[in-house]
């Protein structure tokens, strides 16, 4: 992290000489995250990829993915970090971004974010995520293992869905891409010796029966896929009952999918489509902003459950390589395991 901070400082010759001030932040999970400030007062957020590749399969090339998502979703009328620069130092990818104001929406010091604000935000992100994007090839640092890929999408030729810069997790159809990424996390579970609450074979069977729900998905959308309250920054207005949205952060889990994927983090540990259907303000705001329905039919509800299953599998496996432990993790792990069983039953 110090090397990245010094590299960034060297790019700012007009600043006062001196050592950068580095404050490590606790929000990072897959990556190291820090706030860095120069003597002159300029302050940014720095993300640094892990020193090894022991994480989940989808977690490789996360910095390139986040940079891509910031370029694409950053076109939306939604406050998001701006890229200052990207670098690779000592084999680790670094991403430097502007710092946003506000506190996470799950902070005890904030008031709730209005559901219609969240609905409009989601609609604007999805509109940007499905709109064609052009980028000069020299402006994008494509990971060596991802070449050749389209610098504007991170997708290999012939692929339209899946994780950017991960050709083995991409496919021409939404159903095939979903099958690949679930298979990857099931393989990760075996690699890290995670005992799943539902047998891998049963999960595969449930998924195959439900995959036709993706048949109507022909338009890929870059989804954020991590819109839980910790990644929504808010600032309470004086005397207001609802908070003002000041930022959407942590785009590293973004991938090409369909909009229902972004509903999962809004309704963790619940039957996602049922929870969202009951959220009338969010649905109304999304419809009025985008002209589209979030959950127009039963296939869309099934896709929401499929994305719930995928995220729950990620959550139950990732704790091992990240070394999570303690009472909080035991409770969290138990909740995720129950959720996996509930989702599998709802899809059966």
Overview of this structure, please?
This protein is an alpha+beta fold and 348 residues long. It has one domain: Aminoglycoside phosphotransferase (APH), C-terminal lobe (Aminoglycoside 3'-phosphotransferase, Chain: A, domain 2), CATH 3.90.1200.10. Helices cover 36% and strands 15% of the residues. The protein has helices at 2-10, 62-73, 115-130, 174-191, 200-210, 272-277, 280-290, 298-318, 327-347, and strands at 21-24, 32-37, 43-48, 83-89, 92-98, 103-104, 161-162, 170-171, 221-223, 232-236, 243-248, 255-257. The strands form four sheets. Strands 1-2-3-5-4 form a five-stranded antiparallel sheet, with helices on both faces. It has a three-stranded antiparallel sheet with strand order 6-10-11, with no helix packed on it. A hairpin with a 5-residue loop joins strand 2 (32-37) and strand 3. Helix 3 runs parallel beside helix 7, helix 4 (174-191) packs parallel to helix 8 (298-318) and helix 8 (298-318) packs antiparallel against helix 9. The longest helix is centred in the last third of the chain and has 21 residues, at 298-318. The protein starts with a helix and ends with a helix. The model has no long low-confidence stretch (mean pLDDT 90).
Quickly give the structural class: alpha+beta
Shape-level CATH architecture: Alpha-Beta Complex
Q: Beta-strand level of the residues, as a percent range? A: 15-25%
- Assigned CATH superfamily: Aminoglycoside phosphotransferase (APH), C-terminal lobe
SSE pattern: HEEEHEEEHEEHHEEEEHHHH
What's the β-strand tally? 12
Q: How are the strands ordered across the major sheet?
A: 1-2-3-5-4
Give start-end ranges of low-pLDDT stretches: none
CATH topology: Aminoglycoside 3'-phosphotransferase, Chain: A, domain 2
Whole-number total of structural domains: 1
Shape: globular
What is the first-to-last residue Cα distance?
47 Å
Mean pLDDT: 90
Helix content: 25-40%
Q: Please give the CATH class.
A: Alpha Beta
Cα-atom radius of gyration: 20 Å
Q: What is the overall number of helices?
A: 9
The biggest beta sheet, please? 5 strands, antiparallel
